[in-house]
Amino acid sequence: MAAETAASKKPKLGEILVTYGVITQNMLKNALRRQSQVGGQIGSVLVEMGYVTTATLLDFLSKQFGVPSVNLFKLDIPSEVLKALPIEKIKEYKVLPLEIDNKLTLAMVNPNDYVAIRDIEFILGKRVNTVIVPSLQFNAAIKSIEAGDTGSFRGTEIEQSCDAARSEGAGDMNTLLRQMMETRATDLQLTAGVPPSLKMSSELRRLNMPPLTPEHMKNYAQTLMNPEQQTRFDQFNDLDFAFTDKEFGRFRVNIYKQRNSVSITIRRIPESIPTIRELGLPEELEGFALKTQGLILITGPAGHGKSTTLAALVDIINAKRRCNIVTLEDPIEYLHKHQNSNVNQREIGIDTASFHDGLKHIFRQDPDVIVIGEMRDPESFRIALQAAETGHLVLSTLHSRNATSTVERVIDIFPAEQQPQIRMQLADSLLLVLSQRLVMKKDRSGLILAYEKMLNSFKIKTFIRDSKTHQIRSQMQLPGEEYASIDVSLARLAGDGLITVEEGAKHADNVAFYQEAVKGKFTK
């Protein structure tokens, strides 16, 4: 009775994989649902769904049962070894002879089946050594043995047949989108030569599928694009767009050519627009979003949440002001519903040819708030500055390293003779620069936001006007309500135990200052 109680309390494989962070609780729930539909062992179901690799499954099976594991796909078994047991006994006991000398080595789905081991030892008059094998591989081996004429077993052939079976489903975009949603991955990456890959917490995880072919990629692209988009892609070899699927939600897609093949990146867009509190941004940001005039710039590297922050600010304006909001986006990611404001979202390439063209006539659209997905050329910057000076609130994003380099980039994009005037306009109209990074959490459960803020105080205005933007950087390392550097934000996260010191250093602007700031935080 005690032994039975102990056995019943022994953690199951799925629970162990969740505990070690290999899969999420949601992934286990989906796998258990799948298991109830198709049967089989949970480990093999997890492999089939692409949640774990065969190598990972073998490692954990070995630890759980306390016996060695074996990958049947890497083995060849001679016919004389297989004939040691009748095929009926192999199927009945779910065992596979691997090697015969003084003892018999058996691959088993359940190496704790002592009744089967005892019976086989009695039949053959030999001691048995057991190793564990995934049920998926065992079932494939049985099918091969029953269908074969030679009575031998070749693991590579079995693996190829399993890969071919999985490959048939790999061309189904719905299957991949479902995997993406069930695993809560942020991105799905499809490239010829490697299996479909999911990005989870900024780390790439390849699905347990065969490498994609150029033909696969062509089929994926045709599935995602309509005829008009196909024409644009054929012309430019690069295409950005977004789409909404009734079952899986909204996604942003980039399709591009590489090495004469097609590659695709699909990013999941959350269904609801997060609040600034949910994003981990300062509450004071709301006050700036509700200003009626000026320029707000959200900056940082690609993929670090600029568009999401921009959407959160627009949502605040939409809810709390009665005004006309006009956005220019490439592509439209978050869909805003009209609340107290009207929100007119224009997509580059569909509603207007470019950011520049969209901005040329924007004043005729009577905007109170202008949202520019990204400013890329001098004329767009000029119109944005003009709008910010003449009673409009302008929000935009830029790819830049930090707040001070943002100021320099805006100025340097203009010819030298125009830069003094641009400095004056920027100093007068700028409200706030927010530079942000998404950093891996210490427990690797996801990403957390670190940010740098620079409010356009009287001191900052003077630095910008007097061409002393280089001095802003040193000022930002000092305590102050109007500015705070990314290094201070990272040090605070490290000091609170939310990120590792090493991870913070990867994103620091001044590593030496960051390390000193961390030490100061730890001593408090």
Structure description:
- With 524 residues, the chain is of the alpha/beta class.
- It folds into four domains: 53-167, Type II secretion system, protein E, N-terminal domain (GMP Synthetase, Chain A, domain 3); 171-269, Beta-Lactamase (2-Layer Sandwich); 276-484, Rossmann fold; 486-524, no CATH class.
- Helix content is 46%, strand content 21%.
- It has an eight-stranded mixed β-sheet, with helices on both faces. Strands 8-7-6-11-10-9 form a six-stranded antiparallel β-sheet.
- β7 and β8 form a beta hairpin.
- The radius of gyration is 30 Å and the shape is elongated.
- Residues 1-8 have low confidence and may be disordered.
The structure class reads: alpha/beta
Task: Give the name of the CATH architecture of the largest domain.
Answer: 3-Layer(aba) Sandwich
Number of helices: 25
Termini separation: 54 Å
Share of helical residues: 40-55%
Strand order of the largest sheet: 14-13-15-16-12-17-18-19
**CATH homologous superfamily identity of the largest domain:** P-loop containing nucleotide triphosphate hydrolases
Residue-averaged pLDDT, rounded?
Answer: 86
Can you identify the CATH class of the largest domain? Answer: Alpha Beta
Q: What is the strand content?
A: 15-25%
CATH topology of the largest domain: Rossmann fold
Q: Report the count of strand segments.
A: 19
Shape call: elongated
Compute the CA-based radius of gyration: 30 Å
Can I get a quick summary?
With 524 residues, this protein is of the alpha/beta class. The protein is built from 25 helices and 19 strands. A hairpin with a 2-residue loop joins strand 7 and strand 8.
